[in-house]
Amino acid sequence: MKINDTQRIGAYRTYTQSTEHRASGAESKRRKDEVAFSAEAMELLKAGKGDETDRSERIEQLKEQVSAGTYRVPDSLLAEKLLPFVR
């Protein structure tokens, strides 16, 4: 009569040893994420910054007009934007 199955114990030991080995190796070999931009992307970023000053000036003008109550939207533009929702 067989009481203990030795193969099961051996399989358990192999499993624990392999997980311990993987855990210790993973800590030393962790890779860091990197991001690299292409030359074209860098040119687009530089080109976009030039327009940013013009845009910020326009935004400041609009804020002043809204706070003073002088900002008006042309009726034709307003109707043009509302027309698809009415149909």
Structure description:
- By secondary structure, the protein is mostly helical.
- The protein has one domain.
- The protein is 75% helix and 0% strand.
- It has helices at 6-28, 39-68, 75-86.
- The longest helix has 30 residues, at 39-68.
- It is elongated, with a radius of gyration of 34 Å.
- It starts with 5 loop residues before the first helix and ends with a helix.
- The mean pLDDT is 78.
Q: Whole-number radius of gyration?
A: 34 Å
The helix fraction, in percent, is: over 70%
Sheet-strand content, in percent, reads: under 5%
Q: What is the straight-line distance between the termini?
A: 86 Å
What would you call the structural class? mainly alpha
The whole-number mean of residue pLDDT values reads 78
Question: Helical stretch count?
Answer: 3
Shape: elongated
Domain count: 1
Uncertain segments? none
Oligomeric composition of the shown chains: single chain
Secondary structure: number of strands = 0
Largest sheet: none
Helix/strand order: HHH
